[in-house]
Amino acid sequence: PSMHESRRTIKHNLCALWCSLILGLFVTGCSDTSDEDQIKENIQTLQIAVESESPNDFIDILDKGFLGNQQFNRILIKKYLILNFMRHSDIKIRITHTNIIINKSDTSLATANIKVILTGGKGLLPEQGRLMDIQSHWVKKDNKWVVKIAHWTR
Questions:
Q1: Contact, 114 vs 98, CB < 8 A?
Q2: Contact between 149 and 68 (Cβ < 8 Å)
Q3: How far is CA 66 from the centre of its chain?
Q4: Per-residue pLDDT reduced to its tens digit, 58-111
Q5: pTM value?
Q6: pLDDT digits (tens, 9 = 90+) for 24-54
Q7: What is the CA 24 to chain-centroid distance, rounded?
């Protein structure tokens, strides 16, 4: 094979790998994916949903009985997200730490502790920033991990 064909093959393989990774963000529950990896993928989906201002994609990862900070249900979280999308432009999330623990006695339960930096604003440097600690409790329903309870602090 010529060098040109080799480069084309490498590009094709990289493209296929990239497409597989993106598809993996949206398809969970595969038997080849560990529970911890499925939760990590869902955390990434939550991040992408906020950054792309897609509250419905965010809500899809929350359990029907979701409770956040002892007061936010799914409807209130959606309203809260929309309000923040209107108030803050170009929201970005940087996940600095993730610790996922699958419950050993009931493997359909898990806890994820996450540290994030939230920023917002147009331009080279963000206009606003905030550190947040998030503790979330996950449950596996119909072979899909969803957030049942979350608590976040600044």
A1: yes
A2: yes
A3: 16
A4: 999 999 999 999 899 999 999 999 998 988 888 999 999 999 999 999 999 999
A5: 0.75
A6: 444 444 446 899 999 999 999 999 999 999 9
A7: 12
